[in-house]
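Colleagues,

Please find the record for the three-part complex below.
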Amino acid sequence: MAALSRPAPLPRRAAPLPRRAAAWPRRAAALAVEVAGAAARRALLLVVLLAVVFAAVEALPGDAATAAAERGESAADLAARRHLLGLDRPLWERFLEWMTALPTGDLGTSAQGRQVTELLADPFPNTLLLGASAFVLTVVLSLALGCWAAARPGRLTDRLIGHAATASFAVPEFVVSVLLLLVLSLWTGWLPAVTVTGADGAPASWAMLIMPVVALVIPQTGWNTRIVRGALADQTATPHVEAAVLDGLPTRQVLLRHALPGAVPAIATGIATSTGMLLGGAVVVETLFNYPGVGTVLAGAVAARDTPLIAGVVICAGAAISLVLLAADLLRARVVGARA
Amino acid sequence: MSATATAGPAAGRPRTRPGRARALCRVAPGALLVLLALGGPFLAPHTLDTPVTAPYAPPGGGALLGGDQLGRDVLSRLLHGGTALIASALLVAVAVTLLATLLGCAAVLRPALGRAVERTADVSILLPSVLGIMLVALAWPGGGRGPVVAAAVLLGVPYAVRIVAGAAAPLASSGYVEAAVSRGEGLAYLAVRELLPNLRATVLALFGLRFVEGVYVISMAGFLQIGPQPPAADWALMVRENAPGILLNPWGVLAPSLAVALLAISVNLAANSLAPQSVYKAVTFK
Amino acid sequence: MKMNRRQVLWAGGAMGATALLAACTSGSGDTAAEPASADDKPKRGGTLRVGALGRAGAITRDPHGSQANESDYLVIALVHDTLTVPGAKPNTLPRLAASWEPSADLTTWKFKLAKGAAFHDGSPVTADDVVWSLRRLRNTPSGASRLPGIKPENIKAEGADTVVLVSDHPNAELPLLTRLTTFVLKKDTADDALDKAPGTGPFKLDWYRGGNARLVRNDSWYAGTVHLDAIEVTMFETPQAMANALLAGQIDVASNAGAVAARTAEARRDIQVLRRPDDMAMPIVMRTAAGSPFADPRVREAMRLVVDRDAMVKQVLSGYGTVANDILGTGDPHYAKDVPQRRRDLEKAKKLLTEAGFDLSRTYDLVTTEDIPGLAESATLFANQAREAGVKVQVVKQESGAFWDKTWKTGDFYTTYWGTNDSVVFFASKTMVSQAATNEAGWADKDFDAAYLKVIGTADETARAAALKELQRIEFDRSGYLLWGMADGIDLATAKVRGLPKLPGYGRVQLENVWLR
């Protein structure tokens, strides 16, 4: 889903933190104000997005009543079902009701009559676990690969890494997943083919996480490696790094001590922006490995035109992505502030 | 440290003669693959939609790569299936690049529009892209490739605009553009005559990347059961269609997967050689 | 996929009849035949891990709600009992209702409850519990289609152990209505207590979480001996993931895994492939009403002559199915086997099309979905076959939600599907009588309507059988359906599992007789 979310990172207008070394309490207060402001802005964006989602689901052919209806139901039965689900009320009223219940932690009721919070109670932590593992792994891998390539600019290693990165992000997660499944499970029997959960709602064994995480990591790492490599390339062109090179410092030292710190803001923003991709991949990976997460819930909810459930997933995912973006903003602000 | 700084007019490597030859070498695989995809239907031993063997039959008999889910020849479908995928991805890439370039230039010259683009991109980054595709494609009357291309374009443009705007921003404050503004030139003149010629490298790199993205989106849409109408063949779609029978005939999945990967690599190669390396990288993350 | 699962599930919900004495007679791929050796005396104990299809977002725990998930229905069916259950012969077997009998005019039916039936908490089942449960079922939005012709106030208790149902019209098939959804709960069970409400079934709920569940044996079950210690149900989004889990040894049974999984498993000696014939019909619907290109019966006949049925079964179903003869309800003991099998005849088809003045220059859209495996493929292959007869057919694949909202019941030419195909009368009442709520082809045929009324109003078996034959003949000649074949229901199981279900459709949930070798 990349086009969409392999994004170009936001040119951050994050207001830099006070540059001069101010008194500690003042800096802390300023930081708090900064965080609160950024969080509020992101929350507002999320509300706008939810409104868009409510309206978009309404525009699809069919509704939750026709989707949940059984064959043989008459028009009157269908109307009763529609009333039961509250679909006979105007869209803005339903949106407002859902939004006002949100602060109390109530995400509404699914088309099948279950509490959305209950439906997401297990899947959301499961997806967070999957996504976070993949995220950490991809950050480590792409930093390593990016630095490795940057240390040998223009050489074979650099070009190979560049092409491999492009190829891996162009290959969709389901291709990777299907191949992993074939080789690591069905042919060799090394890993469990699917995830099964126990009474606690979590995967029964950590080995079940391996293939889903790897399937997410491969395309993601391809993308992020390019970001790291690109940021480092820009840094190498800056005067202070060029100066370091002219001083005759070893490449590794120039890269890690001089280029990388300067590249951190760009890398952080770039990688943070691509976290949205993880959820896109999660839909596929969770379906193929039967991993019980929100990705599968989302795909099913759209088919069922189940607006509260869709909105529930959007707000969970949106909140998680917003947090990562916020963290990237802060990191960037800190680095920029510290270097100034 | 802005990435866009390198995207300026002077960023391109000077093209020497050997450089040109090397560029040709890099474009060749992509061109060859495109040619093969275009000529494929004429080389195919069987028609697109007639069963010739058992469903998911392993290679053998008349089918070099075995049968697909309806017992149709995988090889023939592979040869048929490149054109449409390449055409769709190309369409996505052209549309996104074109729209992004126009909007990006306009956004730089008109700050109000620039802010609107920023906000849109901020919102769309929070939208799970899978959901975005489903909502756009399902709301589209009728199925087929149209909605997928539309979804890919609609959801890809906000980011692409940012890239162009980022690259155009330093140009807009440069002397010759400011001079043109003070001459009272219109928006269109400024964008087309002053900004665009200097954005060539960025736009080209953006195009290559968007093409690869297009392939990815079309494949993902196929996974969500959105996409071309049967009996059309499409590499991306073939992977999903034949996945249930992967143990019976792995080639039904492996062959189109390899084709997709090859396409991505060769387009990347071509784009790399047409656009200066630094710009290409910059486009990735800015 | 969600709605489809449910529609498959309930397609046979309201009626249905005898299922064939299934798997044993089904043919080459069937490795389930159980040798009757001394070795095969049921053993007690063990835990069965079973996979069933379902979606996390569509979870429901209400026994009377719309169960979109096969996994949820399985759990409910094992914990709660219905009045009657599907059987092989006769088609309706006693469960909570030990016996039943009609009044002479076939409108009033009395059901006597089984002796010793008790809830899992030990309290006995009373007629009041049953009446409360049936009324609760009847008052859901789908209640009218699940208990057609029975008003809530016409469900009454008579003493402590008899329940009386009064139908608005004579209905010889009424007990069939009580087979699938009449789950009995304790009277006045609150809606928020449904999740843990005690049932009367062969298994008690240990835990349920996110679609997965563990059930333990009910030692004091009134209806027989349960062999398994426990059943663990795992929900799967896709048949493919479920089949992979079985191949990798993570589950013991994959319920409704499909033909491709069966072929994959055939190479494995440690896996049994169980075929339940007559499980799924995937007919093509041709609109019969005026204005449709298929309004002329000769055109519909021609289309039925165009299709190559053997090729359809071979390519679309991988051979896991049987050729059909355009009459729905192939599993019915009264299915008209003597109507000659329609075969491909392109000459006759072309002649009929010319006579009817069918426009061969036009391209006709055949709308389909990917709701169930093979459906879109069947449309694609039919289009290919029609081309050989000079008819241009273009397949239009719609997303499920759009299809059910825009095309179903109104389209000129589309694919549909129905699960549980063991009653000819079921299809007549639901899809072909002119007044039917889901008359998919918009068919209105006076002779057919008359035949139908005769069937459901006749108590005498032979007279009924004759009327049924007439009804099927008309259906064969003129209906809006092209039914090229029937897909088998396919379960996969590891070698140690014995006593698995053999009936199509809902029969797949009957795991109470399973044991492990």
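Residues 24-59 of chain A form the longest helix (36 residues).

Comments are welcome before we finalize the supplementary table.
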